[in-house]
Amino acid sequence: LQTMQAMNQLLALQAKQTIQGQQLQLTQERAASLELARQAAAVERSREVRRRFIGEGTPYTPYPVHFYGQ
Q1: pTM score over 0.85
Q2: How far apart are CA 42 and CA 39, in angstroms?
Q3: Dihedral, 11, 14, 15, 18 alpha carbons, nearest 10
Q4: What domain range is 37 assigned to?
Q5: How buried is 53 (Cβ within 10 angstroms: 0-12 exposed, 13-18 middle, 19+ buried)?
Q6: Cα–chain-centroid distance for residue 26?
Q7: Using CA atoms, how far apart are residues 5 and 11, in angstroms rounded to an integer?
Q8: Does residue 20 form part of some domain?
Q9: Exposure pattern of 18-50 as b/e (b: 16+ CB <10 Å)?
Q10: How far apart are alpha carbons 17 and 28 in whole angstroms?
Q11: Between residues 5 and 54, which one has the greater pLDDT?
């Protein structure tokens, strides 16, 4: 009887460790996915900022200005 109880306890411990390992793996994969999503959002945000800064119209072209009759 003691052998059966010890065996059951070992099996329960093994199952618990397996579940914990799976939970850890899921957590790590979720964190990696979130990091990739954050990076993609940062790239898209920088593209949008650049697009707004550069604009879509005619770019500014400087020309000389003469002051005081020069």
Answers
A1: no
A2: 5
A3: -160
A4: 26-52
A5: exposed
A6: 15
A7: 10
A8: no
A9: eeeeeeeeeeeeeeeeeeeeeeeeeeeeeeeee
A10: 16
A11: 5
- Token pair, residue 31, equals 């964190």
Retrieve residue 34's tokens. Answer: 């979130």
Query: Sign of dihedral through CA atoms 47, 51, 54, 59?
Result: positive
Tell me whether residue 67 is in a domain.
Answer: no
| Domain count within the chain | 1
> From CA 16, how far away is CA 10, in angstroms rounded?
10
- Enter the tokens of residue 28: 């790590």
Q: Is residue 45 in some structural domain?
A: yes
For the chain, what percent of residues have pLDDT higher than 70? 97
Confidence band for 41, pLDDT divided at 50, 70 and 90: very high
